Each structure stands twice: as C-alpha cells, then as structure tokens.
C-alpha cells in the first residue's frame, strides 16, 4: 500500500508539472479563496485583540452610571426626559456605598488644543479625579497623574495621551510645558501609556484624550447641561452582579424614585460592549466566509473540469496501468492526489499573498499576524476542496475497463 501511494504521488506530481500553465489558471479560484480565508481570519483576530486590549482599561469589575445605555436599540428621544447624571449623584454614591468601593465621576467636552505653532481641533477633554488610577488599568508613561491636591485646589494641570504627545510635542519632553485647551492654559504633568481606541461603536480614542481635574474642568468649561459618567469599582472579592444591585438601589434612593417607578439612569458594563462587538464581528466574519466560500466553490469547479480533461487525455494510460495489474484504489488515489496537489499549490500561493496583505494591515491599520492555526486551517480547506473536486473524476478513472480504455483514441 505504501508502494502504491508513493507511485501515485510520483505520477500525480509529474502530471501537474507537465501541465503547469493549465494548473496555474485552474488554481486562481483557490488562490483567491485562500487569500480571502486567511485575510478574513487574520483581520478578525487583529480587530478582536485590539478591541479587547482597548476596552480592558474600562475594567471588568467597574460599573458606569450614565444617562443613557451604551448599547440600545431605540433613539436618544427614548431617554430625553431622564435627569442628567451630575456631581450630586456621584457625591451621594460616594457617601452611601461601601468604603472599599471607588466612585469616580468624569465629564467630557471637545476643545481645540494648541502648543506653540501646533494646533489640534475637537480634542476630547476629560474632567476626572485622582481615583481614575484606581478604576482604570492604564498608567502614566511619563510624569504623574492628577493628584488629590490638584482636584481640591482646582489646579490647571493636565495629562495627555500618546497621540497628543506625538503630534503636539513630536515625542519631546512635554512635562511642565504649557498647553492651551480652548482659551485656558494648562501645565502638562504626565503622559499616559498607549491604550488604543474603543471607537468601534463611537467610543473614545484614549490616546487622543487630555485629562484634567474635574474641578478645574467645571470652572473652565462649565457643568451646566452636561452629562457625567460615574465609574464605580466594586470592592475586592465582591461579585459584580451583587454589587450592581446595591448601586441601583442607592441610585434610586438618591433620585427619590418610588418602587413603582422605573430607573431613570443606565448601568453600563464592559461586557455589553464586548458582547455587541462579538455579534458584529460574527456577522462580518460570516459575510467574509460566505464570499470566500463562493470563490472556493468556483475554484473547485475549475479543478473538477480540469481533472475530467486529464482523465480523458490519459484514458489509454489508465488502460495500460490496469492491464498490467494496477488496482482501482491506485488509480483513484492517483487522481485524488493530483487534484489535491493543484489545490495545495494554490494554497501556498494564496498564503504568500495573504502574508503580504497581513504585513500591510499590520503596518498601516492595526496589529495583525498569521498564526500557525490559520495556516493549518488554510491547508486543511485546500486539501478538502482538492479531494472533493477530484472525487468524481477519480471515480470515473478508477471504473474504466482496461479493454475499453486501451481502445480509446
């Protein structure tokens, strides 16, 4: 059996080499299909890793209280009658919750930033407190973060993201430099480490934010008609689901809601963003795989047609091999190996093109790489398409009768 397999492989590869140009044209569909499979899986993995890395700064044990939910199917008008989340809500929660819980209010606005001759428009300005460091996993890369002293005395200091460090200061030392936020001067005291973006659903780009004490934020930009978000970190060892009920109960007390009234605020968690991202990515990957499947199907039909032509051209050869004792399984394996070899050749070309595409994605868009698992999937898919495409022609060849095959002109 090993001898028959080796012989079938030798004959199959000899046949492929003898018809190189025809094989190249045949494998175009396979090449495009494998390129689609690998690129889709690589892009999906890259997006998933980038998103999870970015939203990890939100914290898996943190609840975010806001006027509207992050993920909802209705319009904003469904929540227009809700009262705004303000500093009084944050102060009430800070007093009523367990001492081990961390309550950190944040306010947002957009303002132009200017340093010497460099200007950036519509930059996210975040008013926060020193407790941000206990809520988020992100840390300053240079300098320090906002201190309690900065918050208590309304100091005009700021911490900038990596993108702002690059664009405004060209990676030069920004510490103690004066940055103009809107019409107000702020002193840079720190630079945050790279955090990425949660902008898949309109979320912030953390690397393009400037963070200031919420007290100086209020005095410079005002708090009237402004929604706040309140981040509440659960005490160590407490289940987030249990803590969520406690937070809802305290917020209802602060808002003076009766038992029959519904909540007029939203509790948001990182899980909601991750679940929605997974749903969206599932649809994207499904569409990508559907298009790829069509390409592989077309490529498989091309391989089947070529294999039928090959069987027809080599009918006398099949007859001679059978006449001198070749078994049906030897003929069957020969043509199956030939169709598999054609598809594998297309697979390797497709992998080469996918490697180039992935390199471009990695340099221009996001971190991406072809993992060994993706390569194995591509090879397995190619072998499956090759075996499936060559099955009917191989069966036809194996069932030819020696006398009829030898008479074939």
Q: Count the helices. How many?
A: 14
Strand content: 15-25%
N- to C-terminal distance: 31 Å
Largest sheet: 6 strands, mixed, barrel
Which bin fits the share of residues in helices?
Answer: 55-70%
Specify Rg, calculated over alpha carbons: 32 Å
Number of strands: 10
Number of domains: 2
**Mean of residue pLDDT?**
83
Write the layout of secondary structure elements.
Blueprint: H1 2-18, H2 20-26, H3 28-55, E1 62-66, H4 87-96, E2 102-115, E3 118-128, H5 132-135, E4 140-143, H6 148-152, E5 157-160, H7 162-169, E6 178-181, E7 184-192, E8 209-213, H8 214-221, E9 228-233, H9 240-255, E10 266-268, H10 270-313, H11 315-323, H12 328-364, H13 372-398, H14 402-407
Parallel strand pairs: 3-8, 5-7
Antiparallel strand pairs: 1-9, 1-10, 2-3, 2-6, 2-9, 4-7, 5-8, 6-7
Helix pairs in contact: 1-12, 3-10, 3-12, 3-13, 4-9, 10-12, 10-13, 12-13
């Amino acid at each position: 059996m090993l001898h028959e397999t080796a012989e079938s492989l030798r004959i199959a590869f000899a046949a492929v080499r003898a018809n190189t140009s025809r094989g190249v044209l045949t494998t175009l569909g396979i090449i495009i299909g494998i390129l689609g499979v690998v690129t889709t899986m690589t892009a999906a993995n890259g997006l998933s890793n980038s998103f999870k890395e970015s939203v990890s700064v939100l914290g898996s044990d943190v609840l975010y209280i806001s006027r509207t939910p992050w993920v909802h199917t209705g319009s904003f008008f469904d929540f227009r009658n809700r009262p705004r989340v303000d500093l009084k809500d944050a102060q009430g929660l800070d007093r009523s919750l367990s001492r081990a819980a961390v309550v950190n209010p944040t306010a947002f606005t957009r303002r132009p930033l200017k340093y010497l001759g460099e200007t950036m428009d519509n930059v996210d300005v975040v008013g926060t407190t020193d407790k941000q460091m206990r809520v988020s996993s992100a840390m300053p890369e240079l300098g320090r973060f906002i201190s309690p002293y900065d918050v208590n005395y309304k100091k005009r200091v700021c911490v900038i993201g990596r993108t702002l460090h690059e664009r405004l200061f060209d990676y030069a030392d920004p510490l103690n430099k004066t940055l103009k936020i809107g019409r107000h001067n702020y002193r840079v005291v720190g630079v945050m480490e790279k955090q990425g973006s949660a902008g898949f659903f309109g979320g912030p780009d953390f690397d393009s934010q400037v963070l200031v004490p919420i007290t100086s934020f209020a005095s410079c930009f005002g708090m009237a008609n402004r929604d706040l978000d309140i981040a509440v970190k659960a005490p160590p060892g407490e289940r987030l689901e249990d803590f969520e009920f406690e937070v809802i109960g305290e917020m209802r007390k602060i808002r003076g809601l009766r038992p029959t009234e519904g909540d007029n605020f939203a509790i948001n968690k990182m899980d909601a963003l991750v679940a929605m991202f997974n749903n969206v990515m599932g649809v994207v990957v499904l569409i990508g795989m559907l298009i790829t499947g069509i390409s592989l199907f077309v490529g498989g039909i091309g391989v089947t047609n070529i294999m039928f032509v090959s069987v027809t051209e080599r009918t006398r050869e099949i007859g001679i091999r059978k006449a001198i004792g070749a078994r049906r399984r030897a003929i069957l394996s020969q043509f199956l190996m030939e169709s598999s070899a054609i598809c594998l050749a297309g697979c390797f070309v497709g992998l080469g093109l996918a490697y180039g595409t992935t390199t471009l994605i990695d340099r221009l868009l996001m971190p991406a790489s072809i993992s060994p698992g993706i390569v194995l999937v591509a090879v397995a898919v190619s072998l499956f398409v090759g075996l499936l495409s060559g099955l009917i022609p191989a069966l036809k060849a194996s069932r030819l009768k020696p006398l009829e095959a030898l008479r074939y002109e």
